[in-house]
Amino acid sequence: MNELLRAHILKWFEKGKRYDGRKLDEFRLVSVEYGVTKNAEGSARVKIGDTEVIAGVKLAVEKPYPDTPKEGTLMVGAELLPLSSPDFEAGPPNEESIEIARVVDRGIREAKAIDTKKLCIDEGEKAWAVIVDICTINSAGNLLDAAALATSAALRNARFPSYNGKTVDYKKITDNKLPIVRLPVSVTVIKLGDHIFVDPTVEEENVIDARLTVAITESGKICAMQKGGNAPITVDDIDRMIELAAAKAGELSKKL
């Protein structure tokens, strides 16, 4: 079945079009909504076409890691809710959810998006931990890019809760923002046959040869990459995919 679907998609690609009428380098409609839940210190909903993802930020005072006593911490988790796709099941995180969390986490870390030293409260004893939870509401392709964009938006939206030196009052949110330095966006470029394209639908994802997710800052600096798919990619492929990702990253950054 996948071979028939692959052949049909490639036939359309030869004409420079896709099922939904888009060009190969065209995203579906992208929207970002801030502050979608009052129970998180920061949150955002991102829609890319029919794909919908919510990211929430929780801030907690914890003991810093021994090797970084003067810095706060970042943790990212992703949950693929069964209500968002018939392919997702309840239970412990699967391979896809783990990959999404790690790719998003790496993009934020390698971009040095947060000045973690400013999260330190008491060296070696207390520091703010930034905890990001990503939840899928509807899976219609390209969860990686949607999750990364929602995370950056939620971090930008986050505000510190009140803290008196002993306890955190989550019912009182201050005007103090996270010490954001820069925010990355991720663009996943797909290779199918000799063609490369962005923002795949579920049908397109099911027949890909390879993919390359590129995290890029607002200034255009590449900070992380993740290769997926079973087929190898050449140096020329990588150059083409990075060039396309860089061209589309600016569009996503504007949505923030």
Please specify the SSE layout and strand pairing.
Elements: H1 2-13, E1 30-34, E2 42-48, E3 51-62, E4 73-79, H2 95-110, E5 120-122, E6 126-138, H3 143-157, E7 159-163, E8 168-177, E9 185-192, E10 195-198, H4 202-205, E11 210-216, E12 222-228, H5 235-254
Helix pairs in contact: 2-3
Q: What does the model show?
A:
It is built from 5 helices and 12 strands. The chain is an alpha+beta fold and 256 residues long. The chain has a single domain (2-254), classed as Ribosomal Protein S5, domain 2, CATH 3.30.230. Strand 9 and strand 10 (195-198) form a beta hairpin. Helix 2 crosses helix 3 (143-157). It is elongated, with a radius of gyration of 19 Å. The mean pLDDT is 94.
What fraction strand? 25-35%
Q: Please write the string of helix (H) and strand (E) elements.
A: HEEEEHEEHEEEEHEEH
Name the helicity range.
25-40%
- Quickly give the CATH architecture: 2-Layer Sandwich
Radius of gyration: 19 Å
Number of helices: 5
> N-to-C terminal Cα separation, in Å?
39 Å
Low-confidence stretches: none
**Structural class from helices and strands?**
alpha+beta
How would you briefly describe this protein structure?
With 256 residues, this protein is α+β, with helices and mostly antiparallel strands. Helix content is 26%, strand content 34%.
